[in-house]
Amino acid sequence: MGKLPDKRYEFLSHQYETEMACLEEEVKDLHESVSGYMDGTTSAKKFMALINRYQDFDKLTNVMANQFIDKIVVHERDRKGSI
Length: 83
Hints:
By secondary structure, this protein is mainly α. Helix content is 66%, strand content 0%. The longest helix is centred in the middle third of the chain and has 48 residues. It is elongated.
């Protein structure tokens, strides 16, 4: 009748479930990678538009600086007492 023994079926079923879990995790990681790539591409396009807009200037203005600088991060010193 082509019926698998119960032990063989349990082994194959467990192997299939393990493989499915790994593949689902891989798909999740790939989606995150693609999302990160798309975000990076969008940021690069915005930066290139700014570069093209201000490629020939004589004086840096506050408006120009504010458009180029997204944020400034300041951290505490690594070692206390260092200069």
